[in-house]
Amino acid sequence: MKSARPNRTTFYFDADLAGFGFYRTPGDTGTFFAEFRPVAGGAKKRIKLGRVGTLKANEAREAARKAIANAALGKDLAQGRADDRASVTVKRLLDLYIERTRDKKKASTADGYELSASVNIVPHIGAVKASALTRREVQVMHTKVGVGRGKYAANRAVALLKAAYSWGGKQEHVPAGYNPASGVDRYKEEARERFLTVEEMQRLGEAMVEAETIGFPVNAGDAKHAPKGPSVSFSMNKKGRARQWIGTPTRSSPPNSAIPAPHDKNKKPPPGEI
């Protein structure tokens, strides 16, 4: 893979194991594969084992060895995978995708996916074979969810289904590139307004009073370039101008009990003001 990119898809075969190799595309993507001829005769068959970089060479070689051995015993892994794809339903595909999501994202995200799938997707198309689902069926589902549960829920359901198919294609649960949720017309979403509750308004008011009287300390934490020395507080005087203090005033210790910050000698501002 370190050599120059080929102008067309190029196949490379292993010198030790006949039928094992990888191919490289002009886009610089490599994929391990195994080739074998069925015991019953006919043309050679080739199955993908995994991407170069994701699958190690020794792991791919062992997988190829098993595939070729199974072919010699009359077991057709390529047909077996095709049968598996045909038997996977939309519900099963979503279950597999959400299970994988729990290892990659927050639990709350996976829980949200599971709720959307069980409420908005599965009741409509869960029993349909994943490889046979059409875009029209997804569009009908989207419309029904939009009417029953809202536009936002409908759009999120389609987004989840699209992600599940994209992942499923990479895992060979569905044919690669097959995604009936792609291209579905979604609802136009608008920004949603939210008003503060009475309790939130009260807390905001208290915070504003504290900022104008006591001030909030500025603390850069343990950052690499954090300034050293005492913390700095800011408050507002009666004229609405900012007042800076070195130290951290408290409710029992008014701002003028802290040490005033040094002023710029050239500007000569009024005492205690910046």
Task: Write structural notes for this entry.
- The chain has helices spanning 57-72, 77-87, 90-101, 107-125, 135-149, 151-170, 198-213; strands at 10-13, 20-24, 30-36, 45-51, 216-218, 232-236, 242-246, 259-260.
- It is α+β, with helices and mostly antiparallel strands and 274 residues long.
- It folds into three domains: 10-84, Integrase, DNA-binding domain (Double Stranded RNA Binding Domain, 2-Layer Sandwich), CATH 3.30.160; 88-170, Tyrosine recombinase, N-terminal domain (DNA polymerase, domain 1, Orthogonal Bundle), CATH 1.10.150; 213-218 and 227-274, no CATH class.
- A hairpin with a 6-residue loop joins strand 1 and strand 2 (20-24).
- Helix 3 crosses helix 6 and helix 4 crosses helix 5.
- The relative contact order is 0.06.
- Residues 255-261 have low confidence and may be disordered.
- It comes from Bosea minatitlanensis.
> Can you summarize the main beta sheet?
4 strands, antiparallel
Give the name of the CATH superfamily of the largest domain. Answer: Tyrosine recombinase, N-terminal domain
Task: Report the span from N to C terminus.
Answer: 63 Å
C-alpha geometry: elongated
The fraction of residues in strands falls at 5-15%
Keywords:
274 residues, Double Stranded RNA Binding Domain, DNA polymerase, domain 1, 4-stranded antiparallel sheet, 7 helices, 14% strand, elongated, DNA binding, Integrase_DNA-bd_sf, DNA-binding, DNA integration, Integrase_DNA_bind_dom
